[in-house]
Structure formats: structure tokens, C-alpha cells
Amino acid sequence: MLPSKPVDWVTRDPVIERVTYPAPGGSAAANLFLPGTSGRHPGVLVCLGAVPDGVDHPQVARLGAALARAGFATLLYWSPAMRDLRLDPVDIKGIAMAYRWLIDRPDIDGCRSGLLGTCVGGSFALMAATDTSIRDQVAFVVAWAPYASIRTLACDIASGATVVEGKRVPWEVDQLTRMVYIRSLTQELDPEERDRLRNADPSVDSDLSLDGRTVASLLTARNVEDARTAINGLSEQLKLRLDAMSPVNQIESIRAPLILIAHDRNDPVIPIGESQSLVALLNDRTGLRYTEFRMFKHLDPSKVNLPKRALIRELVRFCSAVYPSFRQSV
Worst-scoring range by mean pLDDT, 123-127, 225-229, 271-275, 315-319? Predict the structure, then answer.
């Protein structure tokens, strides 16, 4: 949204390589954006989460190029599940495997490298940072608008409200959030039941399986109590799957010296109470940085017509928030 030509004038064009890296069950291909300067560079693996606009959106390439101009070798991780607008715990291992491959390159300095994720990608980046194969070689984790727990997020979606600073306040649920929520909860069901619940009103029908009925009751819950009751009625396998995708259960195992979390108070995709829950768990950690924005829309100020003074104030807050990750890489 801002002119970037001045940055282009004082930095070298990035080098873009099409690479193949290991992934659960095989391999994956992605673009690797490398700084146009010689030497070893800090690396950053970026997980943008469930992006409905697709990998070819021009902002994606601009992000990779901008990070490369700033000195980071940037690998964009694309999850087949998240591209299908659903969450899968296999991506936690997938992000760790891709990061391991990145920092093993001879032109990458693994001691100065880290993970960056946005939205659900931020939550998965936090969980991947606890993987034993990489956790001692993650210098920073940046999570923009992450969620803390699928369980609490389900209650927020059901009630249209979230807990902010100990009080439940109204929250307008974004349609993307609802879609990813429905597709994620129904993924493990029988294909016929899965399609029924995704494509129609998920009313509790007697001819559904037990798992189908409990998932349907969760999707139709309209308050916190009903959502909690429905979650408790899920099979142990489904509950374990939800907990496996909840950073709140793993975040205390992160060893990265810098954890940077940021969220907008009016975020319609992930409620700010989710980040506040994560910060409360990490409050006694050195190296934790937390920033709340007041006028971004899911960290995108272009979606809001801000007065110039307010925009400048938010951009200054943004620069202050991201600076520690740049400092850590130096």
C-alpha cells in the first residue's frame, strides 16, 4: 500500500530460486527468495496460513522480495491443507522439515534464522518451533494474529464473542474463519457425511454417525456452554486432533530466545483474546514481545480508511514490533 521504489533503489534485486524441499509423505516445491548479496544470510520460513487468494497473489511475491531485500533468505511454505482452507496437524512436522532443509543450506546461517507465520500460520509456526529437530536452532518466532486453542476458538465462533482482558465481549466472526473451522472439523468424517455438513445446514440428523452428530452439534452451537458440551462429546481421537493443533498445549516448550506476537484489537478473523491467552502463558519469559494494533484489519491497514495521523501512528507501532526480529538476526 506504500511506495516501495525507494527501497528498491538502495537494495539489490533478490534472486528467486524454484526449490524442492522434503515434506511429510514426499516433497514440495516453492520459491526461495535470496538476497542479492554474497555471504551467508539469516533464513526465515514464512507460513501465510489459509490464504483464499492463492499463492499467485501479487502481495505474496512482494513479501518474499521485501524480506530478501532486507537480508533474509525467505522460503514460502505452502500447505496443501491450508490451501484447501482447513487445518491439519501434519503441517507442524511439515514446517519443521522445511525449516531444517532451509538452515542446512550452506548459504544460510542457522543461528540467526527463524519462523514467521500469519493467522493460523502463526499458530503452526509456534508449534513447529517446539519440534525437537529444530527447536535449538530457531532464533526467533514471529506470529501475527495467531489463535491459542481450537477449543476456545470454537467457543468464540459459536457465541460470536471472545474474552478480552478477562471479559467476554462481542466479536464479529469473519466468513473465512467460519469456513476454515467447518472444513477442519469435518475433515476426518466419512466423505459422505463430510460433504453433507460442509454443503448444507449442519443440523443434527439421526442418520449421522456418532462422530457426525457430535461434530454437527458443535457446528450448530450458538453459545459457549453448548460449544463446550459438544467438544466434550467428541471422540477421543477428534479431541486429540484438536489439541494437537492448539499452541496453548505446546508453546511453553519453545526455546527460541525471541518470541514476537502481534494482533489487532478489532481482528475479525482471529479474535485478539487468543493472542492474549498465549501471552499470559509466556508472561514470565524473557524475549517475549507483544504488540496490539488498534486500526489494522487482520494486520492489513489497506482494508481500513485511516486518517493520515492514525496511519502513521500504527506504522510506527508496526516498525517497533518487527524491529526485534531484525535485530535478533544480526
Answer: 315-319
